[in-house]
Amino acid sequence: MAYGLGVARGMLMTLRHVFRPAITVNYPEQQRDVPVRARTNLLWFEERCTGCSTCAQACPDGCILVQTSPRADGTLSIDRYEIDFRICMYCGLCTEACPYQAIQAGGRYNDAVYVFETMYRDRTALSAESHKYLETTGGRYPNGQMQELIPLITTMPTARSRVDVAGVKDDVPFGPQRLPGRLDRDEM
Ligand code: SF4
Ligand code: SF4
User: Fold this and answer.
1) How many A from CA of 135 to the centre of ligand 1?
2) pLDDT tens digit sequence for 148-178
3) Would you say 68 and 161 are in contact if contact means Cβ atoms under 8 Å apart?
4) Share of the chain above pLDDT 90, in %
5) Ligand 2 center to 177 CA (angstroms)
């Protein structure tokens, strides 16, 4: 008897839900809006990046590659910036480590691909993705800042700009990034 009661209760519950509006959506024809600051993906914003490589050092999977060369003013020119999403676990440690919030969590969640290798994204692919994101948000970064409120090229000091840059002569003036390095301390 108790068994039959349980079945009846279950059927009643099912019947009640049959007449309620569905909470599922027919993906991919229908797509839910996700919160603006959802941690859906990684977005790299070149205009904020100094090339300091802190993100690459923080990544436990080693999926970020940063290659730079020194400029005469002590800043770094970013020659390569690449993320291997094939091995990324979306832990977000790189976004927490970046001192300039140049890599942020956000963007597309429907990031499935047909060719696995296309998940290795170079600077061009990453910039295309972040530009597309900024177009949809009217220039607002995932962290809430507006694009025009920050300088287009980040000129903040980097760890590597604290030492003398190889190949730059002493009489060439350094930019504001150059802080006292080892050589300066030896002279003091
Ligand atoms: S989200 Fe995690 S695994 Fe992916 S690039 Fe950033 S630190 Fe590496
Ligand atoms: S930590 Fe940030 S500023 Fe430094 S290289 Fe990575 S993304 Fe660029």
Assistant:
1) 24
2) 765 545 444 444 443 344 434 444 444 333 3
3) no
4) 53
5) 16
User: What is the mean pLDDT of the segment spanning 140-151?
Assistant: 80
Q: Cα of 160 to ligand 2 centre, how many Å? A: 12
How far apart CA 69 and CA 119 sit, in angstroms, is 26
Atom 2 of ligand 2: nearest residue by CA position = 98
Place of tokens 């049959």: 18
Give the strand order in the sheet containing 76-84.
Answer: 64-70, 76-84, 120-121
Domains of the chain: 35-141 (3.30.70.3270)
Query: Does the CB atom of residue 98 touch ligand 1 within 6 A?
Result: no
Beta strands in the chain (DSSP E): 42-44, 64-70, 76-84, 103-105, 120-121
Give pLDDT tens digits for 68-114: 999 988 889 999 999 999 999 999 999 999 999 999 999 998 888 99
To test the pocket of ligand 2, the residue of 45, 48, 52, 53 to mutate (highest count of ligand atoms within 8 Å of its CB) is: 52
